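Board work, copied verbatim: Sensory histidine kinase/phosphatase NtrB
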Amino acid sequence: MPMTIAYKQILDHLTTATVVLSRDLRVHYINAAAEYLLEASGSRVIDTPITNLIMTPDDGLETLREAAETGQPFTRREAELVLLSGSRCIVDYSVSPLSGEPDALLMEIQPRDRLLRISREEEILTQQETTRVLVRGMAHEIKNPLGGIRGAAQLLDRELTDDGQKEYTRVIIDEADRLRSLVDRMLGPRKAPELQPTNVHEVLERVRTLIDAESKGRIELIRDYDPSLPEFNGDREQLIQAFLNIARNAMEAAAENPSDERPMLTFRTRALRQFTIGHHRYRLACRIDIIDNGPGIPEELVQNIFYPMISGRANGTGLGLSITQSIIGQHHGLVECKSEPGRTEFIVFLPLEPQS
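↓ predict structure ↓
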């Protein structure tokens, strides 16, 4: 199937990912933008079936075949493609007959992951700020009467001479202290991070050691680190607490794996360049994944998992992940969660350099 030089020159200079397919859905041409997006080498995929390059849902492949047979164009929005590497991406793509080439289809692909992620992160940041305002207001309303109740109980305790009666006032004092402590924990860290050069792998290794000791070796702990990550300014102790909260939840989830598969917990790090977190772009950031093979988090909880007092366990306080989000937020980072049966992934993004 010949292609005119003019078409090829135009496609080579497009920033839009473009693939030209023959009528039997073989890759005839792929431009540089498509090679980058689809993580493929053009020299290796030319004249191979499109299914060797990407996998689409069955209805997507069937629609491609219909377009090849009838010449009718079509467009898909926010479709998920599975790449040869196994990674997935969300894209908009359109397929249409190539003008002047009756045996060719032009497939144009626009990545949507970045836009969807930025939109999702803005929503998460808005939720965080709303939660902080709500918790601060609630803490103020609780602490004021709580202080009065505790003070009155102390005065009453001094007036009483009967030890049996004093036991009741002490219960009031102890419960007031417990509630005050709970409210303080909901507010998160009470001091700003003490920033100093920090190695994220040293933080994760400390967490891994603690989890190994707590699980008594029953959980298989896997490390998949990117050794190129540099040090960054962070509060080591607060970060240990943040990752430990995630890892403990993951450890408990992995232990509940209903299958015969051994409980596993994976710690993974990767470098990200020119990466946007929230509203800011950073020259260098890191992604830390903590992955367990437990039963997964119910879908209705995933979107609210970082709110205070939200927990998927009957004995959970629902504060650990809220505190983690607060600590990571103080480091200008973000925490996300993805979950399906057999795999739950907490993803932490942290900037390693000042925003550009």
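Residues 133 and 139 are 10 Å apart (CA to CA).
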